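Attaching the record inline, Q. Sequence:
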Amino acid sequence: QVQLVESGGGLVQAGGSLRLSCAASGGTFSSYAMGWFRQAPGKERELVARISSSGGVTWHATSVKGRFTISRDNAKNTVYLQMNSLKPEDTAVYSCSAGMGWFKYDYWGQGTQVTVSS
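Structure, as predicted:
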């Protein structure tokens, strides 16, 4: 069983930056593909970024490409989401997910709130 704990959310002005972290425990972190999702009020959950177990392959949604970067440190059992040039429409609860495979989302964190003011 894998436990995921996100941190790093908060309130930031438009154009600012935040770095989210997701710390994993209880499993072999380097075996899991990891992803960041977000859900804004009244909207469906959206996959923001994904990274392979080794970190060698990444994917970012078109809406965040060029502004957000997913990365991971397998020695620290942590995945990151660097968010730059934030926009009010990036406001959402951001959650990380771990899966044994690129399209698998087996475990979830509780989420961290990101609010971007205009």
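The CA atoms of residues 83 and 116 lie 11 Å apart. The two ends are 40 Å apart (CA to CA).

More tomorrow.
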